[in-house]
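The material for today's practical consists of a large collection of protein records. An example says more than a description, so a record of this kind follows:
***
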Amino acid sequence: MNSFLRSALAGCAATLPMSVWMLAAQHWLLPRRERYPLPPEQITEHAAEAVGLDAVAEKEPVLKVATVINHFAYGAAAGSLYAPLRTLPGSPVLKGCGLGLLVWTGSYLGLLPALGLLSPATEHPARRNALMIAAHLIWGGVTGVLAEGQRRG
């Protein structure tokens, strides 16, 4: 299996603990006024609306399923970016956390606002940004460990 596919699979798998953290932190750490839908759901809803998939955007069960699929697919795509890092010296956790921060920055301050799918992170409450940065650190660290573990295994 090539390193990009291995890293993509690691990124997909790492989306699970990331998602668990996001949902738990949203429920337990955010004040009620900040417990509105998390970015993956907002992004999925806006993307569905943009391409005319009203049945996805307007039906909550369908939106939830589409959100899960989209989030894991994005995790896999972003995880493939770990492939060139695998050969670099250093801790897989640190390399992965660096990638996680890069993905958060590029996505929340660049790509997603540019596509009109989410407002930039500078317009989100600080606690929600902290939640999402921590989620991306979790995702990146787990991606690194899984990608490196697959190489050794």
User: Anything to note?
Assistant: The chain has a mean pLDDT of 95. The helical segments are 3-29, 39-50, 54-58, 60-79, 92-114, 126-152. The chain has one domain: 3-152. Residues 2 and 76 are 14 Å apart (CA to CA).
